[in-house]
Amino acid sequence: MFTYTLRRLLFAIPTLLVISFVIFALLDLAPSDPTGDLPLTIPPEVREQIRASLGLDQPFLIRYLKWLQQFFINEPLNIFESLTGWQIGDGDRMRVLSWATRSPVVDLIVQRLPQTLWVVGLAYLFGVMIAIPIGVISAYKQYSIFDQIGTFLAMVGYSVPTFFTGVLLIVIFSSYLQWFPSVYDTNLRVTDFQSFVLQVKQMALPVTVLALFNASQITRFVRASMLDNLHQDYVRTARAKGVKEKSVLLIHVLRNSLIPVVTVIALGVPTIFSGAIITEQIFRVNGLGQLLITAVQGADIPLVQTLTFIFAVLIVLFNLIADVLYGILDPRIRYD
Predict the structure, then answer these.
(1) H runs (alpha helix) in the chain
(2) Is residue 307 part of a domain?
(3) Is residue 238 one of the residues assigned to a domain?
(4) Which end of the chain has fewer CB atoms < 10 Å from its terminal CB, N or C?
(5) pLDDT digits over 72-113, tens only?
């Protein structure tokens, strides 16, 4: 397993380099000009000076190599120095800067990341915790009332878009009942019990919307995988040997059924860090999803490039984690 993991990590390096080149090239070829929003009265030579200050007067390959240096070398060194307090070199390194704010892109991401992790991360965790028991019970009691209701709710929850569910919850629980706020207050700091209650209230609606959507998707996979394993020969053999039904269901069937479900769950984890773009817009959550929308609207190419590449890195990483979990869940799977 260790050899396989190491080999996959080494193989991920050229994969990520190719992905970074494609992302950088596509966004560089996009018809966006950082000086496009400037007043028309600004002389052309001033516009060229602005473009030169952003590095756009250099060839494509030079800009790409500088971006690689900034992202893979300079930014990790800055993070290491901030965590340890040790200084490597003079500390004056080129960083990936936002065109809109002229602030380091990584600093902007770090500022928005906690909001996204609190809302989207908790929603995904609750979605998984809800989906697995519902999927197991629905499969075990196939065609029962519980199964029919669970399947119906899962189909509705997965089919209805989150922007409709979000607006519906705002109308019912914020406007009509006035139980929860409709706008997420990013500036709220939890310092006592009262502020903690306010934090829970403002997280209730966006977390509920995303948790129901995630649970609806994962429930369908859990139920289908459980049904596929419930009728296998090893299940009949375990029952014939007198193994308790609870052990058969939770130890034998569930463990094998989680193998395809792990793929769905692991590949869904990167969406936590990318943020729920639509839901964050509805509830005004100042997270990474809203940051990406703002960057796209403002043609902030360095910010879009960095965010997109970070999402790609997370997808490659959690693909590897899913493969490793296969070997843990199923002893028959061996990579060495």
Answers:
(1) 2-29, 44-53, 60-69, 75-84, 105-116, 122-140, 145-159, 162-169, 193-230, 233-240, 245-247, 254-268, 270-274, 277-283, 288-297, 301-329
(2) yes
(3) yes
(4) C
(5) 887 777 777 777 767 676 666 777 777 777 788 888 888 888
